[in-house]
Recover the amino acids of this structure.
């Protein structure tokens, strides 16, 4: 059959359509992001440590990273067997790097409880012994968050600890600590996710502190809290709870002589990170206040202490947008989080959860979820030298999904 009015054959139409499809794909793959006044026509190559759909898992999410006393980088995450959903058959997995992130070991399963959910990794280094303590949250694979919150689930969220004394090569069996760190009227519960801390100065020096969040059964109040150990991770206790609610996933850092800063994901209408301070090792927390510089689209973020030379700084990472999970950005504060004068746009495109660590060479590294069309295509590792941070003014950015 031919189109007599034009004289064009069906084969010509077919090839024309193929050319149009090719052009559309080309335009999509070289899409443009407008961010902070800078437009990039090139798509950044992402250094995936975990790639969804590979190594026996359909999806990898929830990154957590630490650098051990020996300089080994441990990159944890959730290995989600069948899909990217938050419930189901989910394992805690790990890759190790002994050369600062240049090469990585094969995937190692740290905790697999059959078809159940083992997630929310929150690792911390115990400096005196060099041991790595790993806190994690668990639930039945058939129980979903909404059912746990509504108290209609078969079981509930439980909290476990694991540890390694050989630089992350082997791990102890998971040990439950729920009764010590979770109140009876709490339903949902999550450790971290992301790295935790050991206090280095002051009255509570040596204490391990892990940021967590929970939901109350009756009020449905969504709050953050801390749990702590004063015996190098052997036993754990419930610390302070935020006075106000509407916050959840949290991250913690030490600053200014042993004070702690709890930086939290907002669970309300605001699109800024929420902050609380503790002057007693996480036993109590101040009233919550917003950090207006640290914008967010409602997403996890990460805060760590960063020592460079003689300066003790704070470093923060998250998708710096009020509208979408894009624009993974790291920031530096010299004054305990009052201001954030330095920043580094790590990746303009789709990006979500992240965790920072300080490498053995003194540089920062960011371990973050990212992709070319959606944030959950894999988890990326990127080293960030201090010289890469700039003092560019804050501008509103746009990104068209």
């Amino acid at each position: 059959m031919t189109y007599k009015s034009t004289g064009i054959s069906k084969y010509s139409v077919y090839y024309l359509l193929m050319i149009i499809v090719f052009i559309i794909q080309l335009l999509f793959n070289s899409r443009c992001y407008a961010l902070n006044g800078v437009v990039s026509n090139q798509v950044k190559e992402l250094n995936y440590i975990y790639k969804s759909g590979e190594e026996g898992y359909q999806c990898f999410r929830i990154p957590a990273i630490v650098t051990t006393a020996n300089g080994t980088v441990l990159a944890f995450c959730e290995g989600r067997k069948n899909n990217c959903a938050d419930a189901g058959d989910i394992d805690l997995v790990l890759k190790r790097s002994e050369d600062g992130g240049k090469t990585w070991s094969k995937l190692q399963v740290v905790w697999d409880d059959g078809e159940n959910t083992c997630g929310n990794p929150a690792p911390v280094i115990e400096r005196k012994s060099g041991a790595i303590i790993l806190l994690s949250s668990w639930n039945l694979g058939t129980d979903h968050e909404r059912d746990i919150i509504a108290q209609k689930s078969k079981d509930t969220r439980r909290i476990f600890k694991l540890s390694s004394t050989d630089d992350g090569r082997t791990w102890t069996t998971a040990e439950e600590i729920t009764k010590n760190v979770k109140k009876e009227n709490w339903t949902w519960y999550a450790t971290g996710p992301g790295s935790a801390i050991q206090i280095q100065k002051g009255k509570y020096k040596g204490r391990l502190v892990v940021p967590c969040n929970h939901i109350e059964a009756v009020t449905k109040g969504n709050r953050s809290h801390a749990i702590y150990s004063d015996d190098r991770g052997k036993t754990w206790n419930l610390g302070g709870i935020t006075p106000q609610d509407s916050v959840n996933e949290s991250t913690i850092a030490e600053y200014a002589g042993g004070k702690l800063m709890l930086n939290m994901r907002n669970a309300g209408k605001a699109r800024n990170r929420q902050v609380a301070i503790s002057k007693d090792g996480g036993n109590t927390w101040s009233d919550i206040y917003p950090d207006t510089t640290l914008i967010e689209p409602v997403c996890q973020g990460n805060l760590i202490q960063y020592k460079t030379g003689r300066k003790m700084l704070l470093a923060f990472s998250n998708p710096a947008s009020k509208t979408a999970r894009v624009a993974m950005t790291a920031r530096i504060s010299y004054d305990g989080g009052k201001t954030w004068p330095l920043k580094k746009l790590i990746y303009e495109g789709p990006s979500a959860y992240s965790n920072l660590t300080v490498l053995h060479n003194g540089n920062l590294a960011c371990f973050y979820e990212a992709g070319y069309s959606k944030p959950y295509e894999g988890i990326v590792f990127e080293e960030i030298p201090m010289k890469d941070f700039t003092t560019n003014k804050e501008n509103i950015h746009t990104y068209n999904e």
Residues 14 and 249 are 51 Å apart (CA to CA). Confidence is low (pLDDT under 50) at residues 1-8, 10-15, 17-41, 395-401.
